[in-house]
Fold each of these.
Amino acid sequence: MTDASDNAPLAVTPLHALHRAAGARMVPFAGYDMPVQYPDGILTEHLHTREKAGLFDVSHMGQAFLSGTNVIARFETLVPGDIASLAQGRIRYTQLLNAEGGILDDMMVTRLSDDRLFLVVNAACKHQDFAHIARALPDLKLDILNTRALIALQGPLASAVLSKLLPGVELMPFMSAKNLAHNDVELYISRSGYTGEDGYEISVPDAQAESFAQTLLADARVKWIGLGARDSLRLEAGLCLYGHDIDTTTTPIEGNLIWSISKRRRAEGGFPGASHVQKHMAEGAPRKRVGLALDGKAPAREGAEIADSTGAIVGRVTSGGFAPSLQKPIAMGYVDAAHAALGTELNLIVRGKPLPARVVAFPFVPTRYYRGP
Amino acid sequence: MSETRYTKDHEYIRVEGDVGIVGITDFAQGQLGDVVFVELPQAGKVVAKGAEAAVVESVKAASEVYAPVSGEVVDVNGAIEGQPGLVNEDPAGKGWFLKIKIKDKAELSELMDEAAYQAFVSSCS
């Protein structure tokens, strides 16, 4: 991880002043001074996003274009995702892997054309990701976008809000992208997100980020949402937080991300650590990331040990907390393959006490993506 | 007449005779954010000053509530188990955690009074 050390100055996003003006509580995150919550608080922000539309500053994330001859096939040498079958203007979720099949980062890849991709990667990993890509693919051109903010608008009313400014975005299907001009500013719009709700991620030049955010906030249905609610929303959606739920020690199969690898790529391999990943697919991974629903009210958090009915430790919680939409605690974590089946009864050890829980399917809260008219 | 004293961990103890009513301060609830779970001790538990007496969890994190003084827990506020939000809404009132039968009143003098605590909070924020 490349978190800034304690005494390094924190970077700010182009929306920093707006967060302060909105009364946000700021915290250091991945080297940036970021809003963890606004005065309404995490619960209210979370539920607002599930009911209306939440606005998130995710400008700390890394954005880049990768272009050149054969970019599709070349990029497939770094990730297990099927980029070749991706239609123009469509987005794929995939992972950068190391030689052991461990996950260096997870990311979104948009196929802009046959020779150009748009990449969005995690803030804490972006410098090493881009260095890794540049080193591995020296024949291609990597343009890191250091002067564009990234704003997410998420929730069931996101489409109604954004289509007022940008008619047509309401018809974009989930995991598609489009470039549109707003007041002569070019926006890169993706129908995607990290909440399980319908919504968009919008790349906007730094200089116009504040005015664009203010235009969105002028709609009464839109409110700022901080990193706190971003975390509880993605947890309910069963989505991984890099560095917690997946990392260099977990393969995509252990991480329960096999759905993100197509039949062709599973068979052909051709990505880093393919033999390890294929072994996990053929023989079953030794452990698996699972969803855990707790019976009681006490939350289990990252680091809590997971025990079977005999008390033997069979895994560890990697993310957990109170789910505002369910009004109960949920968690995800890794368990031995023998304890990964849906319905398996386990105990999460919190403050020395076993909390009964069951293995459940992801997502915890049904996703509401827009699949098309 | 009751007297309220404060710890550096942002617990309060409101002394009424031999018993102290313990909770977390308004500053503490504001820092924690939305409280979603509390774990209270059993009545009858004997706690030492500074030892963990209860747990309070917000959406983000779990925190311990430490006993401001030594003594026996004589009552707990079951209402906040069902409605943890009371800790945010009324920390000094309906959001109290537990009552301790104070073993040694001399321990109270080691805690901050209202003025000292307000000064301490100003230095925290």
Amino acid sequence: MRDGLPAAAPARLLTPPCCDEGRGREVAGAPTVVLVGNPNVGKSTLFNALTGARQAVGNWPGKTVRVARGTWDAAPGPAVTLIDLPGTYSLEPRSPDEELTRDLLCGAERRPGLVVAVVDAANLARNLYLLAQVLEAGLPVVVALTMADVAASRGLRVDPGRLSAELGVPVVPVVPRRREGVDDLAAAVADALRDPVVPSPPPLGEQAEQAVAALLPACAATPWPPRLLATALLGGGADVPGVPEELRERAARQGELLLASGAADDEYGGVPALLAEGRYAWAHRVLSASAERRGAAPSWSDRADRVLTSRLFGVPAFLLAMWGVFAATTTFVAPVQDLLGRLFDGPLSGSARDLLAALGAPPWLTGLAVDGLIGGVGQLLTFVPLMLVMFVLLTLLEDSGYMARAAFVADRLMRLVGLPGRAFLPIIVGFGCNVPALSATRILGHPGQRLLLGLLMPYVSCTARLTVYVLLATVFFGRAGGTVVFGMYLLSVTLVVTMGLVLRRTLFRDLAQESLLLELPPYRMPSARVVAVRTWQKLSGFLRTAGTVIVGTVAAVWLLAAVPVGVEAEFGQAPVEHSALGAVSDALAPVFEPLGFGDWHAVAALSTGFVAKEAVVATMAQTYGSQEPKDSSRPGTLAPALRDTFEATSGGHPVAAVLAFMVFLLAYTPCMATLAAQWQEIGPRFTLIGLVTQLSVAWLLALAVFRVGRIFL
Amino acid sequence: MNGALRQVLAEIVAARGTAHLGEIARRAGITRDEAEAIVDYWVERGRLSRDRLGGCPPRGCGGCALADGCSARDGQAQVTAITVRPRAAREPEPGGG
């Protein structure tokens, strides 16, 4: 054996007395070759390609780790016993699998004659770390280079010849699935077995090498590979069996010297990190010399990121993208939505009313079916085109990878005002629904952070509120509706940030910031199929959930509207103003008069909105529908009715009043489910504090919007 | 030795804010793959923690009407957060070999 290293203790060949399952038969006296590599590098596929059916799988004696063993006719060389060692990222074991790999590769009892290191060309940096340790084991090594096609698809071309020169061992490209390169690998293994060469280990840096050299003579007196044992002991390898205590103490003293000299730093991982630093530096040199990345310039994805995640353009680009989504949605869809609204308000409701009258249905049934179900569900259905377009656009942004950048940008925005670093995730979830977002606050480590975010979450504008914004924005703002809706989302973010700042500076002063590194997925071309499927999933999910809520709320509102209060009338016969619904809403209406919408319709809608925001539009349709003349020829009536109401309640400033209404809707309690989730996450006391705060903030904000708005609008 | 291993950790610790791996790799003069491998090293040793963000909370997506089509749910275009672990939470250094 040619060797530039101190001689290792005599090694016995690996002859495992295990693996009695299957048909593996060893050839007597055959050399043992082990396959070593990271998980998922194609090692087992290569093992199967080399051994075919001549293999067996079983637990290693004394271990619960399953190991595959087989016979490989490595022509032109001799048949060898091939063992597929469990995948590992390093020879510093962190699991029984990895410990077995370490022990079989370099343990004292049995050692292989040769190592085939399976190296993934697409993840060369990670794979070279393990290879650096394998090269310390004092065994002949042949590298089987897999995944070259995957590396090429990522723009990375690995030159096997140059890699071999850098490593000092043969490198054979293989494609195990197609058995490509298998013969070349057999030839390289035969050569290496015939004329074994122990490669030089990677240098670990001057000071680390001095410490290793100081330990090598004593390590050579053990059955372990001396250099690997020296680095293991320096790295604090307490689990290396059979090592004299004196040697451990000597290694500990060398470690202390490295720390004292400043070569290693406890704050940065101590001596183990110093050794790892040497291995990564070696891996970097090997990579630089043997692999080329296509094109010297950064990829277009990197170039796009420099703009879209930059401090200067990140936030404006995100806001522009979101404005584009809302503007496109409302501009393109408003005419279709209006058409559908007229269809439900007019011919459909009229026909249903006529049909029920012809069937002799009682008035209460007509009220429930036409004003309630058709009116409420019909209003929901008018949002289908809008949701469709919006979900398509959002899915395009998601599938392209941009939304991940938006998360990055949003995170920066949150930090800017002192919110916890990763709080952006629950907030983003909250734009869909506050309930799961409250559960998602558990990703925050500090209880104070969870509490803070739990209190802020109701101000995140969920999808259910969007339908109300869109309805009112299109009725009162026409073509500028998209911008108004976008403004509501901006206001939501501003509200979260402002309330966060207030709470941070009062109740949560001791919350520490954390550093955060994000791995962003690369940009990609959205797939039409994925976009279509996701859009359908979102749309159908929205309709299912909203439909369930609406039908339930419509029935409850109808019931309240049917109970007479203060007048002599039968059930379902009293005017709705004199029903339980009308009476309660009327009683509450004065509270909202200063805000410009002190009307029982608006109050009834806000009341059902307390249960679920999906019900607001349906309640509007239902309460106005109850009052409409039963004239089937009359076209859509909700929009003019809304305009009339806000005109009347605001003293001639309907736009200011409707803005105040939307702001109140944004800021007050999202729904009962959110309250229940808060109760669970932050407890009853803070839930009640939050509830009172939300109602107060909503009322004050709406008051400010109306009072200021009526000066200009 | 002040190499990439130490520099990557130092950059993350010192960031006091958000960064992404591409930026860190550029500053350390290494490839993104190398930076990922180094982050893995520190994650394995308990200095950093890695969490996939965007997954639905353990109890599911609650009443979220968008849950079925949520891209965060199926791992598409997910963001992974890497954070510095507080000292108390770090695992003891493993044995080498």
